[in-house]
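Internal ticket #5521
Category: modeling
Description: The requester needs a full-assembly model to guide mutagenesis choices. All entity lines are attached below as received. Residue total reported by intake: 616.
Assigned to: D.W.
Attached entities:
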Amino acid sequence: MTIAAVHQVVPSLRPHDAVGAHTLRLRDLLRSTGLRSTIFSDDVDPALVAEAQPIAALPPPDRHGTAIVYQCSIGNEVVDLLLERPEPLVVNYHNLTPVAQLLRWAPDMAHLVGWGRSQLAQLATRSVLGIGDSEYNTSELRACGFTAAATAPILLADATFAGAPVRDRTTDWLFVGRIVPNKAQHDVLLAFAWHLAHHDPSARLRLVGSVAAPRYHDALLALIDRLDLGGSVVFEQALDEGALAAAYATAGVFVCLSDHEGFCIPILEALAHDLPVVAHAAAAVPETLGGAGLLLDTKDPVLVATAAQRVLHDATLRTLLVARGRERLDRFRPEPVAQQHLAALRSALPLAR
Amino acid sequence: MPEDPSGPDPWRVTLDLRDEVERAAARDHDLAALLRREQRRFGTGGDDVPALLDEVDRRAIVDVEAPVDSSRPVVPQLKMAVRKANAFLSRHLAQQVTVLAQVLATSVRRLDERVRGLEEATEVDPSLLPEVRHARRFEPELSTLERETAGIRRDVRSADELRTLPGDDAALLVLDSFLDPLSPTACRQAVVAGLAGVRPGGLLAIAASTPGGWIDTAGAVLLDLAPGRPWHEATFAHVALQAGATHVATHQRDGSQLVVLRR
């Protein structure tokens, strides 16, 4: 008996969301091999309603001809349903932020990821395979009890690798990521305060990302006041693709001090725009960045600012990092990553194609 | 492609930045210390107790009005019906949880006030402190230790500086003069924190008054009101042993002492 349909279940499907975009691309990939594949979700952005069906529309249970891929990045009640269904289940794991990193500033979100972690352990007992989008994530799957686990990076669009034409580089610092405590924008602000005081009083920091933890955002604004950084820091919540590409193309350095990243697409976007990266070596960041940036083992503000200053003004180092960045990107291009996903699925499922 | 992809190893560059960072932080210690304090403040636990208690107060009020929105038809009405049917039970539970949370928050707030009172009682008026830098009197000995340990030397002149050490990699850490009036508990904590700031095998050098020298220099008001007084070298050795370190040597000169401990 072979499997002719691989459907996906995702807690929410939204545009401009890494997991949502990955889910759509995986659906297209599965269909391109001749498999039937539909996305099911009860929380779909109006712009994507044509791309998904509600959970209630899942086909009748089919143990032999169908498999289900669950896109896991948060706790969700749909897991209860999946645990009861008989189809072979694959968990595509995009990581859950450690509860402790959210508890103080975003307790509601902390509850959801805590719930997700307990669900992950339940899913381990029912799944034929776990796919982590980084080795870091895959090691968490194994620690959770997944006996079969593989790594396949998140599926990115070709456009991610095109990069906008580089314009006149500024000396701006840039970070792209939702405003949540685990992304540690506060550490970027602290390092930038040193940079402003000791390296470049006219420098600018752009923090691009939607506010997912309002209390943390408020605390960042208060910190900006205390450090008197007001005129030099810009928050930008919603940039369209063109504006985001322009931000990468004109910035001088990308500074990522996240305490936790399961993958970190913005690092790859920075590399695609020949933008050198200074990053804190936490979670999956070293794996994604490889040797293509300056990786710091502490987030001491003076060290971060000194590293960013070096990257901004050492032409030899910039050239090296840009070249390494381009090499690094090859590892994440759509075609080889698509083959990794198919190979992982075939290792656990008797796919028809 | 760039013309010359060869160049310095990024990892090597990162290591090389360390010395530059040390020098830079020393040039503007106040800003470096401020930024490191802010960094601690943003930690997952945070040390802003009143703000945390305000948050506990805010969240102690349990909201039983569960949202009923849904993008699917009929579901909001269904949710509303369930909410109404359970309202009496939800409110009963919520009232009890709210009362319990507020009692707990009030208890913690009172404990916090007591702790603050104790902390204020053990603070020393800085204007009363004698302007003595004991470490200066032992610079020859310290230079010798610095050469022997061949690594990073850090000089710490306040408890605040000690709390914001940039790392635990010092080969020689000097605690200079601020231990004299501390309470025994604060002094013990400072020694332990100092040892934690030293790499394994590194040295912690404590420059302080001798108990006899303190009587000569402190002045009557400080002698009477300070929560503590300088320790004998035997006391430092005792505390070092408890912390897993060893007492290496003590030098004494003109009412000052330099007690050297090895981690």
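Resolution: model delivered.
Comment from assignee: Chain A has a mean pLDDT of 94.
Ticket closed.
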